[in-house]
Specification:
By secondary structure, the chain is mostly helical. It folds into two domains: 148 residues, no CATH class; 34 residues. It is built from nine helices and two strands. It starts with a helix and ends with a strand.
């Protein structure tokens, strides 16, 4: 057996023996009361910890630490306190917007609701949990909380069936054929426009001649849509 394994086991046993000595002879009610006090102290300290970080973020005073002068707050809080950005944001929402609920059920619950239901539904879910808790003797249990979260969660809504993914190769070849066809049509139109412009330029002299002799042209009687023309007599 490795030496470090023996040390860890012996250390663990020492911790267990110490806890046994502390709680032996106490009733379950007394033990729970003691633990509740420690939980409350933990909550208060952790809340002050998160709010202290918020102060450093909002004032940018964390940059006064020379090591983080040019760093982001997320990097600072992760390096210094091992706190990920998402967890910090969840704790901030919990302690500022839902302090009583965080005290009663744990601040992690707010992050759990956010993950399952989205940030916009946190208040709705918390209100439903609180309302249900008030109707039950002894309060709502974790199973009941999870049921409410599930009912409100985005995962409980029926998911739309997604269309099967298109064949990339087929789609690419079709697009390529379409592009080539459009290029051919564009070229044909361009050539047609060039010919029309050339024709217009060639007809310009005839238009001038027509405009010059038009005053001397008159329609013959009964000409209709196909008039015979003759020179106007002076």
């Amino acid at each position: 057996m490795k030496k470090d394994t023996i040390i860890k086991k012996n250390k663990s046993q020492e911790v267990i023996n110490g806890i046994k000595q502390r709680y032996t002879g106490l009733t379950i009610g007394q033990i729970e009361k003691d633990l509740q006090g420690k939980f409350y102290a933990l909550y208060v300290n952790h809340r002050e910890f998160i709010l202290g970080l918020m102060y450093l973020r909002d004032t940018t005073r964390f940059k006064e630490n020379p090591m983080y002068k040019n760093s982001t707050f997320e990097l600072y809080v992760n390096d210094r306190f091992g706190l990920a950005k998402e967890k910090y944001h969840n704790m901030l929402i919990a302690y500022i917007n839902f302090p009583d609920e965080s005290m009663k059920w744990g601040a992690e619950l707010i992050g759990h609701i956010k993950k399952k239901c989205g940030i916009d539904k946190i208040a709705t879910v918390v209100d439903k949990i609180t309302a249900k808790d008030a109707t039950l003797k002894g309060g709502i249990k974790r199973e009941g909380i999870e049921r409410i979260i599930l009912d409100e969660s985005k995962d409980s809504a029926p998911k739309k069936e997604l269309a099967p993914p298109a064949d990339y190769k087929v789609s690419y070849e079709e697009a390529l054929r379409t592009i080539r066809q459009l290029q051919k049509e564009k070229y044909a139109l361009s050539e047609q426009i060039k010919k029309l412009k050339k024709t217009v330029r060639e007809l310009q002299p005839y238009k001038k001649i027509k405009n010059a002799i038009e005053p001397f042209i008159i329609q013959g009687p009964g000409s209709g849509n196909n008039p015979t023309s003759e020179l106007r007599r002076e």
